C-alpha cells in the first residue's frame, strides 16, 4: 500500500515539476516589474510552508502508527527462538518447526555484526534482520510450507562469511511436537 502511494505521489510531483518548468520556459522572455512578483511569491511561499507542514504531519502520523511493519496479528504468543550469530555460524535454540507455527526469532551476535536471512528451497529470501552484538532484533515469521530452509549471513563479517549458514526444518502441522 505504501509502495503504491509512493508511486502515485512521485508521479504527481514529477508532473508538477514539469509543469512549473514549462511555465518558466514559456514566460522567460517577458520583462515584468519585480516587486509585485516578489510579493506574490512570498504569499505562495507562506501557503506552501503550511501545506508542507500539514502533509508531513499527516504522513508521519499515519505511517508511524503502523510500526513495526510485518508483525502478524497472530504472533501474540509465538514460539520464541534464540538465534546467536558468531564467526562463523548460527546457534539456534531450536531448528525444527511446524507449518503454521508463529515464531519469534530473537537474533543477536556474540562478536561482530552479522545478517540473518531465512531462505526457502528456491533460495528466495523470506525474512531477514541484522545480528548485532548487545542488541536483540526479532523476526516474526510463520512457515507456510514444509521443507528445508536455509539461514545465511547477509553481512560481510570476515574470512568465513560465505560458510556462515544454518538449516531449519519445517514439518507438516500434524507431525510437529508443538512447543
Ligand atoms: Cu556473519 Cu557474514
From TrEMBL:
Its main location: other. It catalyses: 4 Fe(II)-[cytochrome c] + O2 + 8 H(+)(in) = 4 Fe(III)-[cytochrome c] + 2 H2O + 4 H(+)(out). GO terms for cellular component: cell envelope; membrane. The chain crosses the membrane at residues 6-26, 47-64. Residues 76-179 form the Cytochrome oxidase subunit II copper A binding domain. It holds the Pfam family COX2. Keywords: Copper, Membrane, Metal-binding, Transmembrane, Transmembrane helix. It is found in: Cell envelope. One of its GO terms (molecular function) is cytochrome-c oxidase activity. It comes from the Bacteria. Subunits I and II form the functional core of the enzyme complex. Electrons originating in cytochrome c are transferred via heme a and Cu(A) to the binuclear center formed by heme a3 and Cu(B). This is Cytochrome aa3 subunit 2. It comes from Geobacillus thermopakistaniensis (strain MAS1).
Amino acid at each position: 500500500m505504501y509502495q503504491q502511494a509512493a508511486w502515485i505521489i512521485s508521479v504527481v510531483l514529477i508532473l508538477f515539476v514539469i509543469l512549473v518548468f514549462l511555465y518558466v520556459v514559456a514566460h522567460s522572455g517577458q520583462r515584468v516589474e519585480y516587486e509585485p512578483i516578489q510579493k506574490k511569491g512570498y504569499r505562495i511561499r507562506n501557503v506552501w510552508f503550511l501545506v508542507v507542514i500539514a502533509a508531513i504531519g499527516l504522513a508521519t502520523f499515519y505511517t508511524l502508527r503502523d510500526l513495526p511493519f510485518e508483525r502478524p496479528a497472530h504472533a501474540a504468543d509465538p514460539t520464541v527462538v534464540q538465534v546467536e550469530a558468531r564467526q562463523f555460524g548460527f546457534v539456534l535454540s531450536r531448528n525444527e518447526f511446524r507449518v503454521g507455527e508463529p515464531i519469534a526469532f530473537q537474533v543477536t551476535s556474540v562478536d561482530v555484526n552479522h545478517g540473518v536471512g531465512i531462505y526457502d528451497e528456491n533460495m528466495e529470501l523470506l525474512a531477514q534482520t541484522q545480528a548485532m552484538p548487545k542488541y536483540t532484533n526479532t523476526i516474526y515469521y510463520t512457515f507456510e510450507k514444509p521443507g528445508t530452509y536455509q539461514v545465511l549471513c547477509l553481512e560481510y563479517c570476515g574470512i568465513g562469511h560465505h560458510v556462515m549458514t544454518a538449516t531449519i526444518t519445517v514439518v507438516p502441522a500434524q507431525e510437529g511436537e508443538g512447543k
